[in-house]
């Protein structure tokens, strides 16, 4: 595994085995990751979980846990409190604890700071939950970016000291960001994630030229260095084209996907099937046709 993703120096020798075990678990030994994102319960409030185009299964947060338990994924990302509410009934899910969140109701440049202490994360693990890592959203370009960078740098050091994997949601937002999905900006965000020591970075797909989006993503892959680039699933898409898009992203060096709405807004069986199809693309290296067969079987 160390040949796929070298163990950072920030992981002490005493935590090497734990870090390696966590990385092996979430990447299935490939160095790539299918991250099922459930953090929208705060980030997007209830509009992602109720209404037109959203299956009634998704009206309750337990739907997220049912998917994560049944599907083939790398890890399930959610806030500490949500995991604490349902974790005893779903102890075997590999959890990535999201340490900060904000709603979409605020105004001005975004600021999102931790809402739990690191000891709270370790307490979940001590209670028998399978905690494999932590996540954090960082808004570069915000007037508050220095505060978030400082906090995230400490999180990386603390998480690695306990052998936990670190994923950063890296979103360029604020008055100083002219185009948050420009390839240069996305690549810059990926580079910041590497410089801050993240193991994986979740970015939005570059959108300067929709037709060349996968090729434009390659710039971010290069900028990220040893930090694995995960592309956000974004707004709901038709399954066939979505699977093909993920396939193309993998061909230019992405190391996986981080998907929320495209999964959880579906009924349970269909959501599980889509997770399995994405995992076939990411972990097994199949093509779009084979992934579609996994989804429809």
Structure description:
- The chain has 297 residues and is of the alpha/beta class.
- The chain has a single domain, classed as Aldolase class I (TIM Barrel), CATH 3.20.20.
- Helix content is 42%, strand content 14%.
- The chain contains twelve helices and eight strands.
- An eight-stranded parallel barrel has the order 1-2-3-4-5-6-7-8, surrounded by eight helices.
- Strand 6, helix 8 and strand 7 (228-232) form a beta-alpha-beta unit.
- Helix 3 crosses helix 11, helix 7 (183-195) packs parallel to helix 8 (213-224) and helix 8 (213-224) crosses helix 9.
- The longest helix has 17 residues, at 145-161.
- The radius of gyration is 18 Å and the shape is globular.
- The mean pLDDT is 95.
Topology of helices and strands:
Blueprint: H1 16-27, E1 33-37, H2 40-43, H3 62-70, E2 75-79, H4 80-86, E3 94-98, H5 118-126, E4 130-138, H6 145-161, E5 165-170, H7 183-195, E6 200-203, H8 213-224, E7 228-232, H9 239-251, E8 256-259, H10 261-264, H11 268-284, H12 288-296
Parallel strand pairs: 1-2, 1-8, 2-3, 3-4, 4-5, 5-6, 6-7, 7-8
Helix pairs in contact: 3-11, 7-8, 8-9, 9-11, 11-12
């Amino acid at each position: 595994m160390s040949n796929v993703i070298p163990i950072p120096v920030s992981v002490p020798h005493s935590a090497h085995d734990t870090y390696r075990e966590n990385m092996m678990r979430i990447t299935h030994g490939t160095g790539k990751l299918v991250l099922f994102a459930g953090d929208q319960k705060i980030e997007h409030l209830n509009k992602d979980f109720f209404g037109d185009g959203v299956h009634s299964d998704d009206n309750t947060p337990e739907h997220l846990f049912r998917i994560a338990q049944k599907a083939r994924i790398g890890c399930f990302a959610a806030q500490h409190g949500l995991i604490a509410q349902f974790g005893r009934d779903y102890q075997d899910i590999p959890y990535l604890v999201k340490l900060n969140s904000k709603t979409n109701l605020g105004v001005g440049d975004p600021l999102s700071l931790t809402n739990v202490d690191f000891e709270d994360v370790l307490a979940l693990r001590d209670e028998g939950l399978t905690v494999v890592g932590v996540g954090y959203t960082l808004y570069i370009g915000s007037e508050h970016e220095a505060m978030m960078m400082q906090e995230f740098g400490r999180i990386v050091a603390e998480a690695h000291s306990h052998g936990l994997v670190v994923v950063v949601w890296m979103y360029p937002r604020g008055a100083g960001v002219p185009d948050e999905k420009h390839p240069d900006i996305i690549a810059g965000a990926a580079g910041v994630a590497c410089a801050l020591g993240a193991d994986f970075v979740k970015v939005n797909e570059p959108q300067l030229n929709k037709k060349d989006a996968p090729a434009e993503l390659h710039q971010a892959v290069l900028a990220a260095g040893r930090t694995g680039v995960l592309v956000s699933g974004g707004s709901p898409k038709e399954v066939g084209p979505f699977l093909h898009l993920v396939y193309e992203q993998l061909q230019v060096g992405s190391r996986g996907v981080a998907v929320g709405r495209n999964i959880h807004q579906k009924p349970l069986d269909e959501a599980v099937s889509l997770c399995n199809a994405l995992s076939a693309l990411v972990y097994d290296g199949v093509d779009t046709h084979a992934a579609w067969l996994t989804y429809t079987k």
